[in-house]
Specification:
Length: 303
């Protein structure tokens, strides 16, 4: 990336397809370099800082952080560090390892105000941003409830879809949509002119004719469950929930108050939900785990 920038060449970066399609994102290096000053203010990364980026560099959020550190004169290192870049799942998993005074950039998924507050309680400051491999930075804040347009970016929501206009957008990418100077990857949200609320491209299932958005069920269960789907003959899919053993009884009880279609019918007890290599919740792994524990159920089974 640094050599490409010196030579004025475009770069092609792989994307894992979290917005719906895998492939290559082609961008100018200037589209990243032009955001460095604003990102330095967000992250607090300065020359000489030690920056921990534990996720794989195949993830563009991690690669950007590594390139920014190198270009800024900061050093990549293992924990502990003064700065870190984590997904929300990795922040929760490693929160006890972070020293008071650490500033963490959190991206790759929505950072809940509750997790941000937990971090603040132990002296860890969070800086959250919403973006995509094709869009780079769109909005930033302390958490997902306080997102404002990223410096240098204009935000709009049209027919429920989030659009951005900035110098940070890639030339092309598998999920990239364009309307004149505006770009989108199809994420849904609302915008009141100040605060952007992003619901993403919701993972939804159809169960017995009803469409259920997994993130909405998780929110209704106070974030104590991770939902997944198991294909089921005659129903399309059945909703499952993975919960820590200590929360199992309470979550099952609270699920009884949900609308019938929202109630998980399949349950797993897991100490921690599995993560993808990019540090995001791996719902497909939960589906496989349930199927392995219940052979013969699903495509030809009954509840």
């Amino acid at each position: 990336m640094l050599a490409a920038h010196q030579d004025g060449q475009d770069v092609a970066l792989p994307t894992s397809g979290t917005t719906g399609a895998a492939g290559e994102v082609v961008r100018t290096t200037a589209s990243w370099w032009s955001s460095f000053a604003a990102y330095a203010d967000l992250s607090g990364v300065r020359p000489g800082d030690r920056v921990w980026v534990p996720g794989p560099l195949a993830s563009t959020m991690n690669l950007f952080a590594a390139v920014h550190a190198r270009a800024t004169g900061a050093r990549l290192c293992d924990a502990p560090a003064s700065r870190a870049v984590l997904t929300p799942a990795l922040l929760e998993r490693h929160l006890d390892e972070l020293r008071p005074g650490t500033r963490v950039v959190v991206a790759g998924d929505a950072l809940s105000p509750a997790l941000s507050a937990r971090a603040a309680a132990v002296g860890v400051e969070t800086a959250h941003y919403y973006g995509a491999a094709e869009l780079s930075f769109v909005a930033c804040g302390r958490d997902a409830a306080s997102l404002r347009a990223f410096p240098g970016a204009e935000v709009a929501v049209v027919d429920g879809v989030v659009w951005v206009r900035s110098a940070y957008v890639a030339r092309s990418g598998p999920a990239l949509r364009r309307r004149d100077d505006w770009a989108s990857v199809g994420d849904l949200g609302t915008y009141d002119g100040t605060t952007l609320s992003v619901t993403g491209r919701p993972e939804a299932i159809t169960t017995a004719g009803a469409t259920v958005v997994l993130s909405e069920v998780e929110a209704a269960l106070a974030g104590r469950a991770t939902c997944f789907a198991v294909p089921w003959d005659g129903l399309g899919a059945i909703l499952g929930a993975a919960v820590p053993p200590e929360d199992d009884a309470a979550v099952r009880a609270s699920a009884g108050a949900l609308p019938p279609a929202w109630r998980p019918r399949l349950w797993l007890c897991v100490d921690e939900p599995p993560l993808t290599v990019a540090g995001k919740i791996d719902r497909a792994a939960l589906t496989r785990r349930w199927q392995a524990a219940h052979p013969g159920h699903g495509a030809t089974g009954r509840v």
